[in-house]
Structure formats: C-alpha cells, structure tokens
Amino acid sequence: MARAWRIEFEGALYHIFSRGNERRDIFFGGEDRQRFVDTLGEMAQRFDIDVCAYVLMDNHYHLLLRTARANLSRAMQWLGVTYTNRFNARHSRSGHLFQGRFKSMLVQNDAYLLHVSYYIHRNPLRAKVVERLADYRWSSYRVYAYGQKASEWLNTERILSQLVNVSDPHKAYRENIQKYAKEESRLWENLRHGFILGDKRFVNEIKRKYLPETAHREIPQQGLLIKEVDLGPILEKAARFLGCDLNEFKSAARISSKRVLDRDLLLYAVWQLGVQTNSQLGEVFGMSGSAVSKRMAIMKSKAADDESIRRRLSKIKAIVET
After folding, report:
1. Residue 67: strand pairing partners
2. pLDDT tens readout for residues 214-249
3. Tens digit of pLDDT for each residue in 170-220?
4. Which domains does the chain carry?
5. Cα separation of 80 and 82, whole Å?
6. Which of 29, 1, 25 is nearest to 101 (CA)?
7. Whole-angstrom Cα distance, residue 73 to residue 136?
8. Rounded to an integer, what distance in angstroms lies between the CA atom of residue 18 and that of residue 16?
C-alpha cells in the first residue's frame, strides 16, 4: 500500500491537510471545533510546533506549521488520535474519524507562507460558507486581518513580517487576501512532485539530503524524485487509450465537449504525478498555467460527483503510473 513520504527536519515548514473518513464531517458543531482548537494548542506546546495558520471546515481542516524539531509525524499522530478519542467519547461512537494518513506539503521558506496562508484562510469563501471572511469564526483569519487576540501557540509574526513597508500589517493582510482569488493559481505553479512547494534549487537540496539511493517501493514520491519522468511516452500511451490526438489539444482553436473531457482526464492524471509545474503542463496542452489550475479544480469537482468519470480516471491513472 502506497504511503506518504514524511521529510522531517528542524525548522521545516508544512501545509497540512486532513479529511474526514468517507468525506464525513469531523465537526458536528461549535463545541467540537473548539475542542479541536484546544487540542491543536496542546499539540503545539507539547511538540514545540509553531502553528502559523489554520482553518476548520465541516469535513476537513488545513494547518500551516513550523516544526522546531524533526517530529511532524509524531505530533500529527498525537493530534489525530487525541481529537478522535475526544470526539468519539463526546458523541458515543467508535472507530476511525479521519480518512487515512494526513497529507503534508513541504514549504520552502517564509516567502511562501504568506501566500499559503491566503489560500488556507480563503477556504470558507471558496466553499461558499460565508460571503465575508470576517464572518467565519473557525480560522486564524481574524487574528491576521483585524489583530484579534491570538492564543499563545499561534505564531503570526512569521507571516506578518513578510508584509514590508506597510504602516498597518493587519490592514495590508486584509486588503491582499481580498484580491488574492485572481492570483491563487500562481501559487501551485511552484508545487513540484505533488508535495514540495518551492523552486528547483530547493527540490535538489531535498534530494541531496533526504533521498535514498533506492526508492522505497511503497513510497512513490521517492521514485518520482530519483528518476526524471519523460511525460512524452506516458501521454502517448494514455492518449491511445482515450482514442485522441495530443496535437489536436494544442493546435485546435476549439475542441468538442467530449474532447474537453478527454483532455481534462488526461491532464488530471499526469497533473497528479506531480512531476511538472502547471506552466510546464500548459505548454504540453496548449494552455496557460492558470488555465491548467482552473481545469484541475473543475475536474476534481466532476470526479467527486460522477462515478463514471472516477472509473475512467482510475484506468488512465493506472496507465500513466506504470
């Protein structure tokens, strides 16, 4: 069974994401959310972790963390188990609460934190839970945007220090996030191999320090880093399965709705490999990097709602991953 590769070192920065089992809710109300926030604070203090930003949605959460010690896995395991036990006790239930292991993205440095925090805090807007972020209580947004008093374990300095030459960093944060929707896709153009947010130099540094000579067969991310993946043959094989022509996607001024779906299925499958940025994939498919980001969001939504699309996507993924 494939498992995530946890790269841990002192001072590492992470974007963490975890969803409820079978996409079910992990919070049944404000008391559960407050219990999670309290547990998060306990984790931060117990494992010497800076929580830089967070948002709690109904069936998932996002965190932005910095580990003073190389202990992300232990800390997150404690958080998941402790909250699950408290949740189960409160609601007289048993069993798993979260869907498998948490997902983590290694973030290069503080320069990326500001933009990741915008993305995290904008979750309630994207989900149409609220019309104004200020109306959403269960995130760290109001601390950043309005200077609301923060818990001791929430470290806002790392992010606010990125707002230079401004008289009021809270106002600057508020104004920047309001216009960030148009810039959001650019952030993920620097997502490499599906789990490293940074430039090529940072990826090479991670490879040099942490990549073993032989990839672990159950950790596909190591295999992606060890070998340079040539997408050409992979795309050709998948295109033959779909019965489509790659050149048509790149050169045609307009393509049919069926071909749009074929293109997006193929694009989504190779996008999930994480071996090229959105801009690089856009060159292959005759699109901009931001257009790739938009199509991926649409494809995610379709796959979540349509079983037939999920089956086709599974078959294409099997082709591109072999």
Report:
1. 12, 49
2. 555 656 666 666 555 567 777 788 888 888 877 777
3. 999 999 998 887 677 667 667 776 778 888 888 888 877 777 655 556 566
4. 12-186 (3.30.70.1290), 229-322 (1.10.1750.10)
5. 6
6. 1
7. 29
8. 7
